[in-house]
Amino acid sequence: MLVSEYVKGPFVPISHLAHDWELHVGVTLSPAEERTMVREPAQAIPDAVAKRLPKVRVLVVPFVGCRDSGDFVSQSKPEGETHSAVWVETERLITLLLACRELDAHDTGFEFLASIAELTRTRLSSEELGRFTELLEKELHAGVQGEIDEDALAAKQSLVASRGWRRRRGSFEDYRDIAFAGTLAEYMHGLWHDVQIRVGPNHLPFPHLRRRLELMAEMFPPNPGYQVFAADLETQQ
Questions:
Q1: pLDDT at position 177
Q2: Which listed residue, of 61, 77, 90, 167, carries a Cα 20 to 30 Å from 51's Cα?
Q3: Cα gap 237→112, rounded to integer Å
């Protein structure tokens, strides 16, 4: 069924999530899968993020495929391209579909956070965009090569390869948007559970990663009981 039609169905929530969001499922989930895919990630999403969005209704489905007529929900693995998450927005409701059959429960949970990060990005103020832009420009001037994830790395490498990124505002803004969504997703990922810091030329050096996460924490403070860094890192400045 096309996603545009599927979301019109009569849904009775199986449970309520943090932020007064709702969970519906089109597959059988164990209690552990439900916690990992949706419930625990939702609890880690800062209230300051949730307040930017209308109500969110999460639908966990087997697969979401792609074809010329539009994205569609499928009970079996479709041929061709698939999505891990798609959403339909109205003024008062975001219906977020999470496809769970090709990913483990943790990865589905991260796709949930990544979707919320992208939805939040489109609702930033000009001042907030300016703060993140300034941070990225400082990184570029310093020659920082790594990035928060593969998508941001590819966008950054393409931008830097042009040797004129200061004049290519459109390309820079594309990179900025990808980097912001990836950074916010990773920030919420770290609030959800302990995350090991990855090192290497393709990853952000820790001092730059820390500055980004600190900026996210200023924009979107953690909920009570959650913290950005492990206790042994709080003393590292």
A1: 97
A2: 61
A3: 31
Q: Which CATH architecture has domain 3-121?
A: 2-Layer Sandwich (3.30)
Dist CA 176 CA 199 (whole Å): 22
Domain boundaries, the chain: 3-121, 126-233
**In 3D, which of 234, 79, 214 has the Cα closest to residue 135?**
214
Whether 165 and 171 have beta carbons less than 8 Å apart is answered as yes
User: Residues 138, 94: contact at Cβ < 8 Å?
Assistant: no
Nearest-angstrom CA–CA distance, 204 and 110: 19
Return d(Cα 18, Cα 44) in angstroms, integer: 9
Exposed/middle/buried for 168, CB within 10 Å: 0-12, 13-18, 19+?
middle
Nearest-angstrom CA–CA distance, 202 and 154: 10
Query: What is the chain's mean pLDDT, rounded?
Result: 91
From CA 223, how far away is CA 46, in angstroms rounded? 5
Position 99, amino acid: A
CA dist., res. 152 & res. 139, Å (int): 13
Q: Is residue 159 within 8 Å of residue 172, measured between CB atoms?
A: yes
Regions of the chain with pLDDT less than 50: none
